[in-house]
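Each letter names a residue; structure tokens follow underneath. Both lines appear below:
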Amino acid sequence: MRNRWAVTLLTNVIGWGLALLWISPLIGIIMAAIRPVEEILYGWWNLRSFHVTFTNFLYAWAGSKGTYPLSKGILNSLIVATSSTVLPMLAGSLAAYAFARFTFPLRRALFATIAVLMAIPQMMVAIPLFMLLDSLGLLDTYLGLILLHSAWGTPWITLFLRNFFMTLPKELEEAARVDGATDLQIFYKVILPISIPALLSVVALQFTWVWNDFFFALLTMMSPEHYVATQCIVWMRGKLHTPWGLISAGSLITMSIPVAIFFILQKYYIKGMIGWMIKG
């Protein structure tokens, strides 16, 4: 009995210790954001003098001292992330249903190609993508970045939703087909309503990934008025010094959106991570 109690105690101590170690950077960011810079010069853990201020949040949101306002960056990110979630979800769901229910030439080869496309690093195709968007006149536009994210997100959405559709009973579709419904009607009126958990999982994952993106935004957006939130944070860094409090406040504001979505759709987010397993 004592041995079991000792093992339980040791497990809890190790677990809480690892958890504290894991969140310590976040605690440091919060401390840097809410305290004057002179109080954190010798470390955010120095609590000899502790004064709470929200000046950094106000400066980060409104922009100051040559920085770009995060309020505009948040709006730009919402435009890009929302559109880059809806478009690939529509395209990916249609493709996934076709792979799950229909037989057509090169079906397996096309599905394997989609799976391979997911493994391509962004940096490998940066130059071709830049030249393509430039030739189409889509550089430094919301549309160009939205199409880029949509194209990048469609393969994994297709794979995930195809796996989900494979688990749905075919009897529902057969009953609707007997009643005279077409394939599109079956998809929109039967399949999609019962697939809401999977679709919300896609929303949670895709929105978060697009929101946190910096590479594609850096590749395509050049004008300050088009900067997304992640770009605005980078430009908060000065030429002669780094305002850590300002950057920390901007980071907390930016991360609050995907964190809120995660808590709202938490159970679907976890299902989405499990959904990477390939079935059939």
